[in-house]
Amino acid sequence: MTDTTHPATATFTTRDPATGRTLAAHPVHGPEDVARAVDRARAAGARWAALPAARRRAHLLAWKRTLAEELDEVAGSVAAETGKPLGDARLELLLTLEHVAWAARNAGRVLRRRRVRTGPAAANQAASVVHRPLGVVGVIGPWNYPVYTPMGSIGYALAAGNAVVFKPSEYTPATGVLLARLFDRAVPGFAGLFGVVTGAAETGAALAASGVDKLAFTGSPGTARKVMEECARSLTPFLAECGGKDAVLVTADADLGAAADAIVWGALGNAGQTCAGVERVYAVRAVHAELVDRVVERARGLRPGSGPDAAYGPMTMPGQDEVVRRHVDAAVAAGAGAPLGAVETPDGPFVAPVVLVDVPEDSPAMTEETFGPTVAINAVADVDEAVRRANASRYALGAAVFCGSRRAGAAIAARLRAGAVSVNSVLGFAAVPALPFGGSGDSGFGRIHGAEGLRAFTAPQSVTVRRFAPPVDLTSFTTAPAAKARAVALMRWLHTRR
Ligand code: NAD
C-alpha cells in the first residue's frame, strides 16, 4: 500500500529460497490497512471507469512499456524471491507483457455496448447489452509465477475499468509492490487505483472480507475453500484458479523425441512448481519404454541450482521438498519403478529430477499435486484408456496430447476434461492471450485471460429502449382482455408451429 500515514506495526521477512539469505521486511497489513487501500482504490476507480476505453488502453500500454523497460529489475525481484533462474523470470515477464498488451487493446472491443435482436414479443424495443466494471477487484496471488499469474487478473480487471487491490504471496511481496510502483510511475494521477497490501493468510482474509466487488484468487484448492467461505458471508463474487495434476497423452504414432523434450520441460521447468505443469504421462504400451528412455536421457543431464548453468531453481516454499519426497517414496513403496532420481535424497531446497514409471493410480504421485521436479509415466493399452485415466483426476486444469496426426490429436483433446489442452506441445495456451484459462473440480472455476477473462471482471447491463407503442400492450392494465387473448393465441401459434 502506498499510503504511509498509517504504518502497520508488525512486519514479516522474506528470504532467498536458494540461500536462506534475508531479503527484506514488509508490513503485515491488517483489516484497517486493507479497508484504506480499498477506499483509495474505489475513489481512483470511479475516475478510471469514467475514462473512454481508448484512454485506459493508452495508460495500460504505457504501463506495459514501463514493465518492458524495467524488465531486468522486475525479473531480478522474481528471481530473488522465488529462487528461479533469471532467464525463467525474464520469460515469465515476456509472457505477461503479451497479456497486458492484449487486455489493453481488446477491452474496448469486447466490452462495448452491442445490440441484440429483440424477437417478436418485443419487436417495438431496441435492445443492447454492455459490460460495466464491477468497481474494486481484490486479487490474492501465489508465489510460483508472482507476475504472470496474478496479472491474469490484475491486467484484465484494470483493462475492464476496475480498480485493484492486490495481496501478493507472503513469499513474493516485493514483486507485487514493484508492479504497483511501476504502475504509478507509468499512469500518473491515479494513485491507489492499483494498490498492494502485504501479509499472509490474515491479510488475504481481510481482503476477502473488505467489501471488494469481486475476489480473484490463485492458489491451492484448500485455501480457495477458506477464501470462498469468507466471500460467502458478504456474497462477494469469487473466482478460483487452483492447482492441477496435468496429464500428457502419447499415442503410438507420436514424435517421441518432441514428446520427451516437452515432457521434461513441462515437468521440471520452474522445479515443477507450475499449476499447469506436467505431472502424469499416459503413453500407449507400444512406445512406453522408448519414451521413458528418452525422458530419462534428457532429464539426467539437468541440474537444479542457483548458478547460471542451473536448469531450474530450488523449492520456493520451505518444506515442499518433504511433499515431493513423500509422493516419490509412497510410489516406490507401492511398486513403482524409478529409472531416475528417486533414491537420491533431496539436497535442501534443491531437488534433482525424478522419473517414475508404473505408478499405481491411487498413489499420491498420481492423485495429489506434487509441485516438484518429478514426472510419472504410465503405460496404457490404448488412447481410450489414456483418456479415461487422464480424466479420472479430481483436478482438471491443463493437458497435452502428442499424436502423429494433428487432426486426431485435436479429436483426443476434445475428449479431455481440462480447461486448456495443447496438441504436440505443452503449455502452448499460456502464450496466447486470447485464450481463456481456468479449470474445474479442484482446479477451481471461472476464467482469466481472453475475452472471458475481461468479462469476468464486469457485470453485463441489459437495456431496452421502447421505439414505438406495440399493437397490443401486454404490460398495461388498460389493454382490452380480448386483444390480449388474440395476442396470446398468436404467440401460442408461433411456438407450436413446426
Ligand atoms: P496458497 O493457497 O498457499 O496461497 C495462495 C495465496 O492465498 C497466498 O497469497 C496466501 O497468502 C493466501 N492465503 C492463504 N490463506 C488465506 C486465507 N485464509 N484467506 C485469504 N488468503 C489466504 O498457494 P501458494 O502456495 O501460494 O500457490 C501454489 C498453488 O497455486 C498451487 O496449488 C498452484 O497449482 C496454484 N496455482 C494455480 C494457478 C492457476 O492459474 N490455476 C497459477 C499458479 C499457481
From TrEMBL:
<dbReference type="Pfam" id="PF00171">
    <property type="entry name" value="Aldedh"/>
</dbReference>
<protein>
    <recommendedName>
        <fullName>Aldehyde dehydrogenase</fullName>
    </recommendedName>
</protein>
<feature type="domain" description="Aldehyde dehydrogenase">
    <location>
        <begin position="9"/>
        <end position="463"/>
    </location>
</feature>
<dbReference type="InterPro" id="IPR012394">
    <property type="entry name" value="Aldehyde_DH_NAD(P)"/>
</dbReference>
<feature type="compositionally biased region" description="Low complexity">
    <location>
        <begin position="1"/>
        <end position="14"/>
    </location>
</feature>
<feature type="active site">
    <location>
        <position position="241"/>
    </location>
</feature>
<dbReference type="GO" id="GO:0006081">
    <property type="term" value="P:aldehyde metabolic process"/>
</dbReference>
<dbReference type="InterPro" id="IPR015590">
    <property type="entry name" value="Aldehyde_DH_dom"/>
</dbReference>
<dbReference type="InterPro" id="IPR016162">
    <property type="entry name" value="Ald_DH_N"/>
</dbReference>
<feature type="region of interest" description="Disordered">
    <location>
        <begin position="1"/>
        <end position="26"/>
    </location>
</feature>
<keyword id="KW-0560">Oxidoreductase</keyword>
<dbReference type="InterPro" id="IPR016161">
    <property type="entry name" value="Ald_DH/histidinol_DH"/>
</dbReference>
<dbReference type="InterPro" id="IPR016163">
    <property type="entry name" value="Ald_DH_C"/>
</dbReference>
<dbReference type="InterPro" id="IPR029510">
    <property type="entry name" value="Ald_DH_CS_GLU"/>
</dbReference>
<dbReference type="GO" id="GO:0016620">
    <property type="term" value="F:oxidoreductase activity, acting on the aldehyde or oxo group of donors, NAD or NADP as acceptor"/>
</dbReference>
<comment type="similarity">
    <text>Belongs to the aldehyde dehydrogenase family.</text>
</comment>
<feature type="active site">
    <location>
        <position position="275"/>
    </location>
</feature>
<dbReference type="InterPro" id="IPR016160">
    <property type="entry name" value="Ald_DH_CS_CYS"/>
</dbReference>
